[in-house]
Amino acid sequence: MISFEESMRLLHSLDVTPCGVEKLFLTQTLGRFLAQDIIATTNSPELPTAAMDGYAVRYEDMDKKRLKVLADNPAGNEVTMPVEPGFAIKTFTGSLMPEGADTLIPIENVNLIGEEIEIVELVKKGFSVRPVGENYKQGETLIAKGSRIGFAEIGVMGSLNIVMPKVYQKPKVAVLATGSEVLEIGEQQTNAAQIRSSNNYTLEALIKQHGGECVQLGAVKDDKATITQNMHEALHSADIVVSTGGVSVGDYDFVKDVVRNELGAEVVFKGVVIKPGQHVMIAQKGQKFIVALPGFAYSSTVTFMLYVLPLIYRMQGSEYKPTMVYATLKEPFVKKSKKTEFTPCRILIEDGEFFVDFAGNREGSSAILTNMLGPNRALAVTTPQEGNKEAGERILVWLLS
Ligand SMILES: Nc1nc2c(c(=O)[nH]1)N[C@H]1C(S)=C(S)[C@@H](COP(=O)(O)OP(=O)(O)OC[C@H]3O[C@@H](n4cnc5c(N)ncnc54)[C@H](O)[C@@H]3O)O[C@H]1N2
Ligand code: MOO
């Protein structure tokens, strides 16, 4: 078994080929990863622009107290008339500032008397004028290649008239649950030893949540030939093949042998000093990866996040960066092993500080997935050297939401 740090080092040293690139209509790119830098082709705004409704004036005319209003300058209007000394042009939020004017006096600061304004409250030079390039300057890289596209990225690309951004194609991740006791949803139960699968559904959800496309293979029995055939076919249709179950030491744990001996894959590592998930195995075949996760529901979920998410992100030209914070324990923490441990917990924010407790946690085996239900879920991460901790001590926490 290797240490957690060594497993991460090996994972990050893998040569991961990014997926191909495609162009999609702007709003279809939500959640995808950019395959191009987004560079401002113009200044924004391109010309000085009014930020309020009011009167465009020359600052040096402010002391004249009364100015004649020359014209109206609504937004969208290409203003041609300049503001001459002693005059004002009525100008609205979003209108270009007329030539000659450098300051905008808001409507609230003047009295309109016939065709003149009387300035009742002075403003500073340049007031309410958005300068050229206030938003961004021509040539600036606004969004880097590899960024995940969210609402702000969509809006900024819209403002740049980018109709079809280039994004990475979704990595295809095949999911296969193994276990003769495992039933898929909807499948008829025929004996009491059977259990419903959760793993392949949890993993499909995680794949989709992180930008991948799931090739759902369902559940298969602990049969070497069936597992071999499924994994073999999955290697043709997917970039990453993920299995659950069959990696520990039982007589029917065939997955590890299939990966090693039947698929002809090169094992990167098998076994890590972590809890849960110590039997996890990663192998590579050409540019494809096989990640064999333990069967327990909590183990397969945590190990998927640790070892598969980084591959999914790298295939989309990005990097998986878990959000880690230090939080203060509200209650004692009991270290269960001399491994790197991932303990489900709840994060609380009180007066701007992070706290953590284990409220509602069920105690038991790595089969318990319900400890990850609900909002504010997180994982406390402790090293093999760390022991029990008292309430009030700090602990490293991986935020999941
Ligand atoms: N003698 C030993 N026994 C076990 C060891 C060990 O080192 N020596 N390790 C334990 C640990 S730790 C883990 S983790 C598991 C991992 O075993 P496998 O990956 O071979 O998984 P299975 O035995 O196939 O299943 C484990 C457990 O999970 C349930 N399961 C399986 N598939 C699903 C699914 N799709 N959805 C929900 N639950 C699933 C299965 O019924 C088993 O209860 O081995 C320990 N044993
Ligand atoms: O290594 Mo297992 O996943 O702890 O229960």
TrEMBL record:
It comes from the Bacteria. Its cofactor is Mg(2+). Pathway: Cofactor biosynthesis; molybdopterin biosynthesis. The keyword Membrane applies. Residues 174-314 form the MoaB/Mog domain. The keyword Membrane applies. The chain crosses the membrane at residues 289-313. It catalyses: adenylyl-molybdopterin + molybdate = Mo-molybdopterin + AMP + H(+). GO terms for cellular component: cytosol. InterPro entries: MoaB/Mog-like_dom_sf, MoaB/Mog_dom, MoeA-like, MoeA_C_domain_IV_sf, MoeA_linker/N, MoeA_linker/N_sf. Pfam families: MoCF_biosynth, MoeA_N. Keywords: Magnesium, Membrane, Metal-binding, Molybdenum, Molybdenum cofactor biosynthesis, Transferase, Transmembrane, Transmembrane helix. Catalyzes the insertion of molybdate into adenylated molybdopterin with the concomitant release of AMP. This is Molybdopterin molybdenumtransferase. It comes from Nitratiruptor tergarcus DSM 16512. The lineage of its organism: Bacteria, Pseudomonadati, Campylobacterota, Epsilonproteobacteria, Nautiliales.
